[in-house]
Amino acid sequence: MKISEIGEFGLIERLAAIAAKEHPQSTARKELYIGIGDDTAAWHNTNKLTLSTTDCLVQDVHFRLGQTTWHALGWKALAVNLSDIAAMGGAPECAFVTLGLPPDSEVCHIEELYRGLLDLARRHGVALAGGDISTSATLFINIALTGSAGTTLLKRSNAQAGDLIALTGFTGLAAAGLRLIERGSPPCPEDEPLRQAFWQPNPRLEEGCAILAAGAHAAIDISDGLVADLKHICCASGVSAKINLSDLPLHHVLEKFFGSETLDLALGGGEDYELLFTAKPNVMSCITETLKTPVFVIGTIEERVPGSVKLLHASGAEYKLQTPGWDHFV
Amino acid sequence: MKISEIGEFGLIERLAAIAAKEHPQSTARKELYIGIGDDTAAWHNTNKLTLSTTDCLVQDVHFRLGQTTWHALGWKALAVNLSDIAAMGGAPECAFVTLGLPPDSEVCHIEELYRGLLDLARRHGVALAGGDISTSATLFINIALTGSAGTTLLKRSNAQAGDLIALTGFTGLAAAGLRLIERGSPPCPEDEPLRQAFWQPNPRLEEGCAILAAGAHAAIDISDGLVADLKHICCASGVSAKINLSDLPLHHVLEKFFGSETLDLALGGGEDYELLFTAKPNVMSCITETLKTPVFVIGTIEERVPGSVKLLHASGAEYKLQTPGWDHFV
Asked: What pTM value is reported for the model?
């Protein structure tokens, strides 16, 4: 059935029914004072700080139809926003979903997209609180996500010389997964971790809260690539960084499928949604010992040229990363 | 200059510079704890309730390039969101702007769009707190807007039998303006109020707050059309409504340009962004006497079939509106 057969209000009714069934209000962290169906959503404040972020996925830019399941598309649209809340050490609360849909879209596809989104929302107690639907020649999904935090946050601008730099997981997997998808390689069980990293990232929300509570200084999610995002922290904090390449975790599946390109993928590939964070050595020890998720310490914050990132082999030789950062328009 | 010549980060730099110059932090109602440049924005809560809404404008659906100025496009993208906060009786706080832009877009056009958005933001003390930029074959602007309120709101579901129904201004002007634009009629000074209503609506934020403070029961903004939006209130509140057509304000420019179609435009045309609200007669008297903006009392809330709206001529004869409501997909 095409959306044009049931209309905007028919579609909204069906999506609301899915939300009510698969994501009842009781699964949301936040009890809404006013949810879907009025001019705005409204909720009572609890924590001191309110957070908000927005991120969108656009057809033929962030995804191609036919290269993904609709469920994964909905999941990822929310995941990229959740990851931003995680990188502040906050707790997510309410999601506002804008869908731009070609009129000949299949209703069952959009319902499946919604199920993917709701599956992830339920895991993290996010309330689906509102949205907008429009026709659009290009399919897009924009999500605005609010959250909350106490009095402190993991700012990008708070890294300090002497801090250790750490990662909550492997990098380069999502970029490798995207290459496999773009090449049209048939999926096999062995390369699943790479495709999964691209399509179903797990935002590090619990980790972000634990890292903040332990007293870490700064954090960012690896959406632009490890080196590019570390540079963002260094620029914002007016510090420099050194990465010891021998400490960089390289996933065996990445090495198996991409051989000599592994290092560049791990340093330059984006969309991994792991957290990159900095903390004093004693705080870092406490985090690595108590966090269930493995944490890899990969370098140190220094006081050289602000914004610069040095990559060092165990021999002391410097490595130059060739991969440029992603730019939407160049 | 095309966006592809300066890239995503070049564009962001230019837009940030415009924002800093034309919309300094001091003009925003809300001092941000963290603004643009981190994973999320963050601010301290003041009022009891946090509000949030999202609305988007899509090329060839909500606007056509060449039929508007870029300044007006930016203004309207924010105005439609502000209007939703107004219809709750809230105060707007932070805007999150997602731009989907064809790579061959002219930089000066997007800068002008931003200036329009910031001009309206400044008027209402809104802080531009974050956003996202992506390429997209179809141009779109999505805004998510947060706001706040005390302990009460103008809910759609709170209209009560015996309430009077009122409007903060004329309706049908925006729909008439759109018809002129679609026809390609050359603009003349006389039809300016119609075009202006479509492209530069003034969200009724002060009026919304005053109406709530006075003790009105329910409100909605006229974005779908007077009758359609009154039905939304009636359905949500489980009541019916009667409109006295002789009390309906008809703008003389609308009558001049659209003659016999005037009534249908006033009842069925959308995108006017006036507030339609209900209040007890004594509260309504107080509002009409104290509000600077003229208020037109046009009918009564009753207890007939829930969701039904009756349109009555002075003779007592019933009028049937032919215009169907707008549906994006049918």
From this structure: 0.94
